[in-house]
Specification:
about 500 residues, alpha/beta, Udp-n-acetylmuramoylalanyl-d-glutamate--2,6- Diaminopimelate Ligase, Chain: A, domain 1, UDP-N-acetylmuramoyl-L-alanine:D-glutamate ligase, Protein-Tyrosine Phosphatase, Chain A, eleven-stranded mixed β-sheet, six-stranded mixed β-sheet, about 30% helix
Length: about 500
């Protein structure tokens, strides 16, 4: 594609005398290792490295076109495009390069602290079942036509997003549902995208400190940006921060909730114990009532289902049709019941902050287990603020806890566990520390009693551990399976 077309609508100063219409470009990259002949290298100022420092390396591998925020020193044959914000430049240039694929899709964006992955997955299942071909982008990866591709971030950068949108258009996808993280909004990954529908789930302190958000207010403001670039907004009106999220919204607004007056409301909420853990409620919407059964338990499942029903109704799927899918839909790593030992229920869940952990533990308590055994840790190098609070939650709502590793990265797992354990020591609550997560899971199973619920919290869908900067293969489901098979062999 001609460079001038890739740069359309981007404000920049060009330090070259070349005719940009005569420069042919085959790709765009922010990775100097991929910057070769006929590519554009975009210099990004990151939290750990500055792409401008790698411009010479990109030049040496054959790249001759550079987009930057400040001056870089390169030979005279380099085409240097200077712009105010290279992150925004990626979004503009990627949309141009892939011929604006997002404009050919119905875009649905989900933001909030909890529930994004579940809502995305279940709404997609409902729409696909109803004949509206839908793809998803989020924590669990990019899923198109039943195939899932891993992503580095919950919301990929603008280049990867537009590339994925282009793939969706080629696959005749009609709707794309995205988890839109606060970092994506902060770092302009969704810059210039217009969402047909945007959803606010809930808000609590998370991703604050280090290279993430400097304060809760900043975190909240970034989330709220989504409702300045959508046509139709759907809000959880029961959340304390609903007024903040809606305050500057530039869209038509709809609400859902259990307590506050809302456009979609749930009442007559009951737990379901018939051979599975679920919850039922009555939906009231447009002066009509619908009986809804969710295949997952807890009041949070009611909120997630209300959001799904609001999205799918907006896209033309009636609640009675959506209800059929809601009764059986499940999401990997989100309150996922895994078969293990007889008379023991083992649950894998992504709960990795104090509020989500509390919600899961309180939900489990509703099903009257003999004991709740909670196995969890905290991510290394960036979650110091949440560790003690997570410990307080587990100390109060679990009967016994096993403190272990959860992506410790370059931080000492024992230090992380010590930060969590301080809350148990203060409360006098029982726990054991086992840094090796595989050994911790085996300990939980070895010491399980009839009627126990064992919660493996924090990893959820993840099939790896991050240790010393490396992703090491790690599957909780496989560990449980291997343990149970070995146990069966010994008994025989």
């Amino acid at each position: 594609m001609e460079l001038c077309k890739i740069l359309e609508s981007l404000e920049y100063d060009s330090k070259c005398e070349y005719d940009l219409s005569q420069i042919d470009i085959c790709d765009i990259t922010t990775d100097s290792r991929r910057a070769v002949e006929n590519t554009v290298f975009i210099c990004i100022c990151g939290a750990k490295a500055d792409g401008h420092d790698f411009a010479r390396s990109a030049y040496n591998t054959g790249c001759r076109v550079f987009v930057c925020e400040h001056d870089i020193s390169l030979p005279d044959d380099a085409v240097i495009i200077k712009t105010e914000n290279t992150r925004k430049a990626i979004a503009v240039m990627s949309a141009n390069f892939f011929c604006h694929p997002a404009e050919k899709l119905k875009l649905v964006g989900i933001t909030g602290t909890k529930g994004k992955t579940s809502i995305t997955a279940v709404a997609s299942a409902v729409l696909n079942e109803a004949g509206i071909k839908t793809a998803t982008i989020g924590t669990n990866g990019i899923t198109i036509d039943g195939k899932t591709y891993p992503t580095l971030n919950t919301t990929p950068d603008a280049y990867e997003l537009n590339k994925a949108f282009a793939q969706m258009v080629s696959a005749d996808v009609k709707c794309a549902i995205l988890e839109v993280s606060s970092q994506a909004l902060f770092l302009d990954r969704v810059y210039k995208l217009t969402f047909d529908i945007a959803v606010f789930t809930n808000l609590s302190p998370d991703h604050i400190g280090g290279a993430e958000h400097p304060s809760f207010e900043h975190y909240m403001a970034c989330k709220a940006k989504l409702f300045t670039q959508c046509r139709f907004g759907i809000f959880n009106s029961d959340d304390d921060h609903y007024p903040d999220m809606r305050q500057n919204a530039k869209c038509i607004c709809q609400t859902y909730g259990i307590h506050a007056p809302s456009d979609l409301t749930a009442s007559d909420i009951k737990i379901v114990k018939d051979g599975k853990m679920g919850i039922s409620f009555t939906l009231k919407y447009n002066s009509k009532s619908y009986d809804i059964i969710c295949s997952t338990p807890g009041v949070f499942s009611v909120y997630n289902s209300l959001a799904v029903l609001a999205i799918t109704s907006r896209l033309g799927v009636s609640p009675d049709i959506a209800a059929k899918t809601l009764s059986s839909a499940s999401v990997p790593g989100r309150f996922e019941v895994v078969r293990s030992l007889d008379n023991i229920i083992t649950i894998i869940d992504y709960a990795h902050n104090p509020l989500s952990l509390k919600n899961v533990l309180m939900t489990l308590r509703m099903y009257e287990p003999k004991r709740i055994v909670c196995l969890f840790g905290s991510v290394g190098s960036r979650t110091e603020l949440r560790r003690f609070e997570m410990g307080k939650v587990a100390a109060e709502f679990a009967d016994f806890s096993i403190l272990t590793s959860d992506n410790p990265d370059r931080e000492d797992p024992k230090k992380i566990i010590s930060d969590i354990a301080a809350a148990f020591d203060e409360a006098g609550a029982p726990y054991i520390a086992i840094p090796d997560r595989c050994e911790a899971i085996k300990y939980a199973l070895d010491n399980a009693r009839q009627g126990d619920f064992i919660l493996l919290a924090g990893k959820g869908h993840e099939n790896y551990q991050i240790i010393n900067g490396e992703k090491i293969p790690f599957s909780e489901k496989q560990i449980i399976k291997d343990y149970c098979e070995e146990k069966a062999t010994v008994i025989q």
